[in-house]
Amino acid sequence: YILVILLAQILFSIFCWWQLNRPRPLYLELERAIRKKEFVPYAQPIVDAITKETIGIEILMRWKHPFQGIVRPDLFIPQAEDSGLIIPMTDLLLKETAKQLREYKHDLPTPFHVGVNISPQHCKSSILLDECKVFIDEVSNHNVILVLELTERGALEVSEFTRGLFYDLKMLGCKIAIDDFGTGHSSLVNLQEINLDYLKIDRVFVKNIGVDCTSEHLIESTVELAKRLSLRIIAEGVETEAQAEYLKKQGIENLQGFLFAKPIPLGEFLQNYNQNISV
Ligand code: C2E
Ligand code: CA
Ligand code: CA
Ligand code: CA
């Protein structure tokens, strides 16, 4: 009798182990991870090009996988976008970010820029507006500015609906940035239509500063364009002092990159920041 129970237990353990470890389609894994709230916010500072002071952060998603550890977004964002799961994942990220920011709301510089990556399909529904409203209410600090980073890659279509959505988002106090600028195909018309606030110059151009003059020309003409449209520029992927110096000389306002800091868990960033300003 005992032997039968023992055997049943062993079989059950094997079954559980197989359930946990069998290869499953990424889609099902992502759904499970959403339920378990495994997507967490990391933060990378954005600094003022002149003073080098932190003016805000970009929130970058990480997957805290129970067996694989921290998974980088390039491994799962494409599939999350194709399946539409990116929408609940982003919602989760916004909620967690708001919760953590709220705790430190009296210790942040004013204004404090919080960039969040938004996929093109998210801009096709009005859920985004509701989620941003919830975020702003939750943080309950009027100095926190939510900046929606829309990638230029997916060629954002500007329709009657998106025009209305962006208008409402702006009325709510959100700002709009075009991410990876220079790598996609957004036409000037497109850019003017959605009343942008920021351009983020992609790191492929920053990397080639001092190496290839086509990248420098692109940066210089982006600066011209930004001036004409009254946009601010954030340069991404700044890794060297020479790049930072060049970008500052061009009149670019904000910089982001490993030269200043790598992305770290948001909670850790907020704690460090708080310690640094109170000493
Ligand atoms: P991105 O929006 O262009 O984010 C910047 C990426 O560059 C981040 O990679 C960041 O860690 C990296 N980076 C920053 N500074 C440097 C530097 O100095 N040198 C180098 N080599 N890299 C630097 P990460 O975190 O792996 O994210 C990759 C991409 O995944 C993001 O590119 C974004 O397109 C996407 N992503 C991340 N989080 C989210 C999210 O919450 N939602 C969506 N839809 N996409 C996200
Ligand atoms: Ca981004
Ligand atoms: Ca980018
Ligand atoms: Ca990029």
From TrEMBL:
Residue ranges occupied by any EAL domain in the UniProt entry: 23-277
Enzyme Commission (EC) number: 3.1.4.52
Keywords, in A-Z order: c-di-GMP, Cell membrane, Hydrolase, Membrane, Transmembrane, Transmembrane helix
Reactions catalysed according to its record: 3',3'-c-di-GMP + H2O = 5'-phosphoguanylyl(3'->5')guanosine + H(+)
Enzyme's top EC category: hydrolase
Top-rank taxon, per record: Bacteria
Membrane topology, record value: Multi-pass membrane protein
Transmembrane regions: 1-18
Subcellular compartments: Cell membrane
GO cellular component assignments: plasma membrane
A molecular-function term among this protein's GO annotations: cyclic-guanylate-specific phosphodiesterase activity
Protein name: cyclic-guanylate-specific phosphodiesterase
Entire-sequence positions represented here: 231 to 509 of 513
